[in-house]
Structure formats: C-alpha cells, structure tokens
Amino acid sequence: MPISFHARVVVPPHVLLQQVGEESVLLDLKTERYFGLDSVGTRMWETLAKADNVEAAYQELLSCYEVDAGRLRQDMETLVGKLVESGLLEIKNE
Q: Does 1 reside within a domain?
C-alpha cells in the first residue's frame, strides 16, 4: 500500500511505547503483540507522531541525517507501511 506523504499518521490509543535506551518496544494492547524499533526507527516514530504529516517528518529527518533523500523516503514508506499493517499507526488523510 503506497503511503501518501501528505497524510498524517496517528498513534491509536491501544498502542503503548516503551523506550529502552535509544531503542523502543511498541505493544498493541488489542493483539498483545510486540514490535521493536532500533534507534533510527525510534527517531522516525517520534518525528512522525508529532509532525503535521509524513512529508513534514521526512523533511525534519532529512535535515538531521546525512542520508540519500530517496533512501530515506523508501525507508519511511517501508516503516510506516509495516506499522499501519500491524495496527500500530493509523493514516489520516486530510
């Protein structure tokens, strides 16, 4: 499922986040499934959760990391897609 970078992502109320050092563990209270994020995934999660839309999060991360813009876009699409598919994020098209 392609992710629109103009969409906003929202953390559902049934998802908990616990940071462990620079990494995080997400828990879906509905399914009782865990999902681990490394330090970069955690930074993406934090940025996505507070941004107005995926594009704003992308631009912020692009300014923080020395990374190829296309690679970052692909990595964000992959992560958001997996989190949405797992029920850990919801897409709000505005």
A: no
Exposure string (b/e) for 3-13, b if CB count within 10 Å is 16 or more? bebebbbebee
pTM: 0.88
Burial (Cβ within 10 Å: 0-12, 13-18, ≥19) of residue 42: buried
In a domain, 43, yes or no: yes
Query: Which phi and psi (to 5°) does residue 3 adopt?
Result: -100, 125
Is residue 93 domain-resident? no
Give the domain extent around 17. 8-86
Instruction: Render pLDDT for 17-50 as a digit per residue (tens, 0 to 9).
Output: 999 999 999 999 999 999 999 999 999 999 999 9
